[in-house]
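Our preliminary data section would be incomplete without showing what the modeling component actually yields. Below, a chain of 78 amino acids is followed by its predicted structure, encoded as tokens that our downstream tools consume directly.
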Amino acid sequence: MILIRFPNEDAKDRALELLLGEYRFKSWKSGELLVPEEALPLLARENVPFAFEGRDMNFHSNKSQRSFSLRSFPGPPR
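Predicted structure:
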């Protein structure tokens, strides 16, 4: 899983539209999004700007260090 951040709300909203129903992801209040590495080419092809923040992050840190997930959308049915 890859942690990414967007330069603005429009870019994040566009990414959420593209990812919804295609990939599992998590979104945080801080504006970060955790996505599978396979989702990055889709965002790039659609010219959605994003910045790489990290890889294989441990998101079970304590609450004071990171706000917990606001949304968690399942991927497509298998």
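The longest helix spans residues 9-19. The chain has two helices and five strands. Preliminary results of this kind motivate Aim 1 of the renewal.
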